Amino acid sequence: MPCNAQQTRRVLFVGNSYTYVNDLPQMVANMAASVGDQLVHTSSTPGGCTFQQHCINQSMTLIRQGGWDAVVLQEQSQLPSFPQEQVEVEVFPFAAQLVDSIYSSSPCAEPIFYMTWGRRDGDQDNAPYFPVLGSYEGMDSMLCQRYMQMAADNDASLCPVGRVWRKLRAEHPDINLYADDGSHPSLAGTYAAACAFYAVLFHHDPADLTFGGEVADDDARTIRAAASEVVWSSDDSQPQSQWIRPQPYSAVQFVEQVDSVASFRNNSMHADSLLWSFGDGTTLATGGDIDAVSHPYADTGSYTVTVVASRHCMCDTASILIRILASDTTVVDPLGIGSRRHDDCETQPLVFPTVTSGKVNIATTSASCVDVTLLTPHGEAVIKDRLCGTGSLDLTPFSAGIYLLMLRQDGKTTIRKVVRL
User: Fold this and answer.
1) How far apart are CA 23 and CA 48, in angstroms?
2) What pLDDT digit, counting tens, does each position of 89-145 carry?
3) Residue-wise pLDDT tens digits, 323-340
4) Pairwise CA distance, residues 19 & 114, whole Å
5) Which CATH code, of 1.10.10.10, 2.60.40.10, 3.90.1150.10, 2.60.120.620, is assigned to 246-341?
6) Count of Cβ atoms closer than 10 Å to residue 119 Cβ
7) Hey, which residues does 355 pair with through a beta bridge?
8) Is 345-421 assigned to CATH 2.60.120.620?
9) Angle between the 92-105 and 136-153 helix axes, to the nearest 10 degrees?
10) 387 beta partners
11) Could you tell me the CA-to-CA distances from 164 to 35, 51, 192, 221, 266 in Å, in that order?
């Protein structure tokens, strides 16, 4: 969603006292209103309520009403930090049930797990049974791990409030994030949570806000900066990829032509379904996990082959230009090797192949050089280089997985996903 467009988001907050203390939803709404956006919110936040209880109370009724743009899910403050075998029985199944109901009732909604924080002095009541809970750091780490797992397992986004708190505790201990009980948020703690939610819900950088509510100006600026650093990706004008549910990514590669039949490899990711358009007026719908398709062409000539990858109500489009000849040799237009997904793609660097066990080629289509950074999904830069003309990156030293390729040229930044087989 465009970062400068005014938006209205209809959001249901499902949680307990960590959400209703200091009225977190209203604080996010006030932040949004200060820059012209609108948050229409409803809450179901009984004190101490668990995901299991939300599955049978008013929360499920509200979820099934449908029409939500997003549903925020906050578990009881201690449960996700308990031993794995207990969490697998008492938390994970009910998180899945809630998300399944969200997608069934509001197919375009975004489920967002609310990562909470460790208690100021850890969970001393439960530390004798699970010693890691005896400190803030231990409890907070357990919560982080479990919320990350719930988001990954359930095709959901994650609001990393606990990570923002951890940064503030480490770097600005003078800002008191806790209420007197050492568990619930102070006004500053809720403000930190609201900054994180503002970024995730509206895809705006919280550092650009001026709204501080009743938090002291200096503290509010510090909190906004911390939330921006944890949640925001300044080079991509959106929250960092690890916090946002998987986005469909479309990529297609020509394989060969035999007689008049052209074969294509599907390199798309995170897609439930694909719609293929072969450029001759014919289309084909397939599942997102198909490896390859073939298509017969009646005539020679040039054709633009387009693949639309869809997941829930999200989609992504990529195209390649091929030339069918009378012989079995097909010429692929170099401008079509990379995925076309922008109006100005002719001026952007080309990346091919996007799925490889060896090298990724990068071709610049303008006279200027391109600064290249290869990032892990967690944002760690493993390659930094500067290419002029055409060059390549060798991925063989790295483990298999998904990487992000950040290309900076002529003041514009492009992000491409590449897969190391």
Assistant:
1) 16
2) 999 999 999 999 999 999 889 999 999 999 999 999 999 999 999 999 999 999 999
3) 888 765 555 543 333 343
4) 9
5) 2.60.40.10
6) 23
7) 419
8) no
9) 40
10) 370
11) 22, 23, 7, 13, 38
